[in-house]
Design a protein that fits this description.
Layout lengths: L4 H7 L1 H13 L1 H6 L1 H10 L5 H13 L4 H18 L4 H16 L12 E6 L6 H14 L4 E4 L8 H12 L2 E3 L7 H15 L3 E5 L7 H18 L5 E8 L5 H13 L3 E5 L9 H9 L3 E5 L7 E3 L2 H9 L9
Parallel strand pairs: 1-4, 1-5, 2-3, 2-4, 5-6, 6-7
Antiparallel strand pairs: 7-8
Helix pairs in contact: 1-2, 2-14, 4-5, 4-7, 5-6, 6-7, 7-14, 8-9, 10-11, 11-12, 12-13
């Protein structure tokens, strides 16, 4: 696979550090997918049905999902026939390209208006609060002024945790008392962002109420408030998904999408799973772009998702000596 050389030239040392961090964070997934795929191609002297079946099994086991795995291999079979590919290493490159194409599209965060609004959703335990802090840090480092809305008013200490992050990153926060109406907090955050001419407002939301129906109703109410008050602004509604939950993450995205109209996914804890194929599954099954991925616990371990860099880091040939 050829990476755009202009990207490397433009980023220089920053690119190398970014790529190294991404590659290291994907080590378990690389062992779960790429190395096994490479081993199949390396041990095969011909392209036949046995090869296709082994590849399909690897993808399924890596949480790419049955339907998506079958479709990927069907596309591979068709492309190999159409392009008259005879060598297994050429077939390997074709498979990598199919995966890259699935992951590509609309991954850039939309923050073109002042202010821009980002709603962050997710069940408790996925790292939502931490992700908001890291996202605020990314935007601050881009020179943007950020305001955070602490609208997860139902979880004990959620407001305090966000306030600590706001102080750490150096941005302002809008908060009400614990148990207050989350939609009111979001409304006040959007209004404050407009009045202060802030670049980006990031709003936290509840991850759990006493039942799922009430949670989804609350999230719909918040989403409606944002769309009404910021109808002429860029709005991102992002769901934080824990990669270690596998296909359950796809189910979560479907449920949250019904309530709020998601625009993208932030996938956390990719460094903690060998089943990072969930990235492919979410992108293909739900049509939702991956906006950011988390590959560690440090403040700079949340990274903008770049399908080209991701695919290169996942299948990088220099990784072939790692133990499976």
């Amino acid at each position: 696979m050829k990476l755009n050389s202009a990207k490397i030239i433009d980023l220089g040392g920053e690119y190398m550090g970014f790529f190294a961090k991404l590659k290291n964070g994907l080590k378990k997934t690389r062992q779960g997918i790429a190395q096994k795929i490479n081993a199949v191609f390396d041990s095969s002297d011909k392209i036949d049905e046995n090869l296709y079946e082994e590849l399909e099994e690897i993808l399924i086991m890596a949480d790419v999902g049955m339907e998506t795995s079958v479709e990927i291999i069907d596309n591979l079979r068709e492309n190999i026939k159409k392009k008259k590919i005879k060598h297994t290493q050429e077939a390997r490159q074709e498979l990598i390209e199919i995966i890259r194409e699935i992951l590509t599209g609309d991954e850039n965060l939309k923050t073109g208006t002042t202010p821009s609004i980002i709603l962050v959703l997710g069940v408790n335990g996925v790292g939502k609060t931490t992700t908001i802090g890291k996202l605020a840090n990314i935007l601050k480092n881009q020179g943007k002024e950020v305001i955070i809305g602490a609208a997860d008013t139902f979880r004990a200490a959620a407001i305090d945790q966000l306030e600590i992050w706001a102080q750490r990153v150096g941005c302002s926060i809008v908060k009400h008392r614990e148990g207050a109406d989350p939609a009111a907090v979001v409304f006040d955050t959007v209004v404050a962002a407009k009045k202060r001419n802030v670049d980006v407002a990031i709003c936290d939301t509840a991850g759990r109420l006493h039942n799922k129906k009430n949670l989804m109703a609350e999230l719909k109410k918040i989403s409606d408030v944002v769309k009404k008050e910021a109808w002429d602004l860029d709005i991102e509604i992002l769901l934080v998904v824990d990669a270690t939950t596998g296909q359950n993450g796809v189910v979560q995205a479907k449920e949250f999408g019904k309530a709020s109209g998601l625009t993208g996914i932030i996938l956390t804890k990719l460094d903690g799973t060998a089943k990072g194929g969930i990235v492919i599954s979410i992108r293909k099954n739900l049509g939702l772009p991956i906006k950011f991925i988390g590959v560690g616990e440090q403040i700079d371990d949340l990274q903008p998702f770049d399908p080209e860099l991701f695919t290169k880091a996942l299948f990088d040939s220099d990784s072939s000596q790692e133990e499976i």
